[in-house]
Amino acid sequence: MRRRDFMSLLGGAAAGWPLGARAQQRERMRRIGFFLSGLAADDSEGQARTTAFVQGLQEYGWADGRNIRIDYRWGLQDPDRLHKSAVELVALAPDAILAGGPPAALALLKVTRTVPIIFANATDPVGLGLVASLARPGGNATGFMNVEFGHTGKLLELLKQVAPKVVRVGVLRDSNVATGIGMLAAIQAVAPAFGVELTPIGDRDAEEIERGIIGFARGPNDGLIVTGRALPRARRELIVALAARHRLPAVYSFRAFVAEGGLISYGTDQAEPYRLAAAYVDRILKGEKPADLPVQVPTKYETVLNLKTAKALGLDVPDIVRLRADEVIE
Fold first, then answer.
1. Are both 127 and 201 inside the same structural domain?
2. Distance of alpha carbon 1 from the chain centroid
3. Residues 46, 77: one domain?
4. pLDDT digits 0-9 by tens, 194-252
5. Is the dihedral of CA 269, 189, 126, 39 positive or negative?
6. How many domains is the chain partitioned into structurally?
7. Does the residue 21 lie in any domain?
8. Sheet containing 30-36: which strands, arranged edge to edge?
9. 187 and 320: one domain?
């Protein structure tokens, strides 16, 4: 059979295929990795971020099981587990990987410099070495920040507004990473203006957190700031319980703490960057490169207030704080 006759025969056969079959021939199944560090699969915060990403993909026409396959890994803070999960995901040859949190992104970059990586909720991507610059990432990674250091100082301002008598403030942060050091420095820069003495408290594990808060709390003029870092639910509950037990007015970076009984939070919606990351995944699947997609900085911060906790602490929350709050939990 001549080649021309063969191609005509093949074309006629394809035209007779059902529409669904022809669509499957045109649409190749793509593979996406989802790697979340710091939170367990059954953590409500982790589930909210997963849902936001999946819904974001659906907005661009991508559905798990139809035209994409999503492979999930959860890495908490164990370096060995993070590395193992990164190796497993890269071995699946995905078209792109969403890295939830800097530990996941760093673990992936140790394994691959070719697979596109989109990170969510990174505080200092340049300082961490995830990208060369915010405007021009330059490598195989780009993504979305969850806070800028300058906004961290506002946590102290908010604490003094809701508890003006506070003069000693414990600052919960991770001293082993640049972001923890940077956040503490931002608070230290504004502390003299508010007349407070700061005490750094480590948060590497539950024992260090409990020991640090118990050792810090002395009297009625103490307060607590919990800087931005993804912590498992058990540690969130521990911190909130310790603040209540020692009657410490506390300001948190994440809404999740306030929903679980904390006093007040100021920060970004932690699930939103996952929804936004879907747009970058879509662009990469359509041929764009991470090196050409600038890192996005947060544009909206929200305040969440728990009035029940304020009442338990004997605090009369000023009207200016109540009115500014985006959400008030009664």
1. no
2. 61
3. yes
4. 999 999 999 888 999 999 999 999 989 999 999 977 777 789 999 999 999 999 999 99
5. negative
6. 2
7. no
8. 68-74, 30-36, 96-100, 117-122, 141-145
9. yes
* Same structural domain, 212 and 91: no
What phi and psi, each to the nearest 5 degrees, are found at residue 212?
-70, -45
Range of the domain at 65: 27-145+270-292
Its pTM stands at 0.84
Q: How confident is the model at residue 151 (pLDDT cuts 50, 70, 90)?
A: confident
Whether residues 126 and 274 share a domain: the answer is yes
Q: Are residues 112 and 158 in the same domain?
A: no
Q: How far is CA 321 from CA 31, 47, 52, 163, 169, in A?
A: 46, 30, 29, 11, 20
* Of 129-138, 225-234, 270-279, 309-318, the least confident: 225-234
Is 48 inside any structural domain? yes
Residue 38 belongs to a domain with what CATH number? 3.40.50.2300
Q: Distances from the Cα of 279 to the Cαs of 52, 134, 275, 276, 307, in angstroms?
A: 12, 17, 8, 6, 37
DSSP β-bridge partners for residue 173: 202
Averaged pLDDT for residues 92-114:
96
Residue 224 lies in a domain: yes
Neighbours of 215 (CB within 10 A): 11
Q: Which two tokens stand for residue 269?
A: 């919606």
